[in-house]
Fold this protein.
Amino acid sequence: MMKLKTKVLLAALLLLSPGMGFAQDYCPVIPMPVSAIKTDSQFILQSNTPIVLNDAALRPIAQYLQEELLKTQQLTLGLQAQESVKQPAIRFVLSAKKKSPEGAYALDINKDGITITAREASGAFYGATSLLQVIRQSKNTKGTLNLKGWKMEDQPAYGWRGFMLDESRHFFGMEKLKSIIDWMAFYKLNKLHWHLTDEPAWRLEIKRYPKLALVGGAGNYVNEFAPVQYYSQEQVKEVVAYAAKRFITVIPEIDMPGHATAANKAYPEFSGGGAPGHPEFTFNPGKEGTYTYLTNILKETNVLFPSAMVHLGGDEVSYGNQKWATDPEIRALMTDKNLAGTKEVETYFMKRMADSLYRMNAKLLVWDEMTDADLPKDKTIIFWWRHDKPEVLKSALNKGYETVLCPRLPLYFDFVQDSTHNYGRKWSKLYNPLENVYAFSADQYQSEARNKNQILGIQANLWTETVQTEQRLDYLVFPRITALAEAAWSPKEGKDFQKFMQRLKGHLALYEQDALYYYDPFPSRKYPEPVKVGKGIKRFNTEL
Ligand code: ACM
């Protein structure tokens, strides 16, 4: 029998967060590595621990680690040449011998040093982020950290691990955006889908059409008179480079032919009208000038975003294309091209814009409404978002499209995550708790794919109608971003939500340190839900 005193002591130890440096066998890394074995060894990390590289290509990764350690631990580690180093070090090793998929790495922490081995730079980067997570959850005593011994072997389950941020409804700006990119990198997410244009505002500077930003950039979802806010081309370049250093590709979305209200405010000559609930909602597919105008916009966009992928939306056009039925130019187009109805006009429009993109050597990304538009399979990626239309995903896969899975349930982060939350979306009574995000697996759809590479991965989308403040943004993203990362990266086998919750504790401590206003999923429910700034509470129920 255990003595009561011992029992109390054990219980107290179990309650203590692993973030506080107490021995636990829980792996502190999220997403969970494919294999993580704790050893009895430990490594003493301090400011005179050198970083050693075997390849110049690793320099930017070492620099990233140095910068993060300075920022979070006030540690100033130096780089040293390979040959001269005998002492314990952090060693990055590129090795062609490591036959593993892109992004794979091994991380070994023991008393003699830390070694990160990978075949190429992205793997070394992911090894560095795992190390950073171990470091950030270890106790720092005056610049000395005792790191527990770990042997990790890891590789991603899916290559597309995305997060979409809508900055049309509300604008967050460079500092917050960079912080989101930092956290994405920390959790090995690698695609930032940047929704820059929609009904309330247009947020991207286009030199040829300056009014897009200067006129279209005014307003937001709750206040049409909010001051002009947009990203200049210089800022976009900075964001793209910042993300690239963290192995994140930035993909812009220029939504068309619908969700074009802000652009139409700036250049009404290209508006195709709308419907009572969504005035001036679409571009005008009946005007030849519209195609030139939009192609010019895409040419600048494509230069700014070297991802060679542009998302053209294509969603919800029927919300605001009522005027198409009576517009003389659109009617003339229908007669001329033998288009039977507005759906055919929509397809005609998207095919032409797709051709423009393909000529720029870029891939077309679209929402799942475009599954039937007969776009080329090898240059188009379909984003499945309508969870209530599984047949659309099935059809996209059947036709051979590459797809990204971002179903509203459970991957829309503007949905609430707790039954008591009032402000934010629900689907009837359904919402997106942490557990559902964690449990999501792209594997369950593999049987519908024609080949195993067709499902590129998964993505969470944050629409920002209800996100007026950074506090609310944090609240919707943290900690669900961790569950997203684990769903996208870690193998389905071995997932365990209760253990995940234990591992999460150390991460909540990091949010505390970084002053994020996160949602606390534990019974303490530390922070209340931030609600609408201004009058009243608005509940969104999006069952249509
Ligand atoms: C969407 O949520 N309209 C893609």
User: Anything to note?
Assistant: Residues 160-513 form a domain with the TIM Barrel fold (CATH 3.20.20.80). The CA atoms of residues 98 and 119 lie 5 Å apart. The two ends are 60 Å apart (CA to CA).
